[in-house]
Amino acid sequence: MSAPPALQIREANAHLAAVHRRAAELEARLDAAERTVRAQAERLARHDQQLRAALDELGRAKDREIAALKEQLLTSEAAVHSLQAAVRQRDDLIGQLQPRAELLWDICRHQPPLARLLATLAEAERLGPLPASDPGGPGPPLANSTGEEGAMDHLQPAVFGTTV
What we know:
The protein has 164 residues and is mainly alpha-helical. It is built from 1 helix and no strands. The longest helix has 122 residues, at 6-127.
C-alpha cells in the first residue's frame, strides 16, 4: 500500500479541522441553547410560583370576602327579623288603637252639637230653677213623664244642673 499523496492528506486534515470546528460550533450552540432553555425553565418556574402564590392569595381573599358577606347576611337577616317583629307589634298596636281612633273621630264629628248642647245646658243652669209652685197649678207638669203620671210617681222632677 502506498501512502496517500500529501494533497489528499492536507485536504483530509482540512476537512477534519472543518468538521472539528463545526462540531465545536454546534456544541457551543447546544450549550447556549441549553443555557437558554434552563434560563427559560427557571423563569417559567418562578413565574409559575408567583402565579400560584397570587392564586392562593386570591383564594384566601375570596374566602375572607365570603366570610364577611356571610356575616353581613346574618346581620341583615337579624335586622330584617327585628324589623318584621317591630312591624307586627305596630300592626297589633294599630289594631288596638283603630277602634279608639274611630271613637275619637265620632266624638270630633259630634263636638259642635255637643258644644251647643252644653251651651244650652249652661244657659238653663244660669236661669236657675223655677219658683216653687203648686204641681197641679198652671203650666206644664214638672215630672218626667209621658202623661201617665200615676204609674211613674217614683221619678224626680226635672232640675237642671251640671252633671257633666
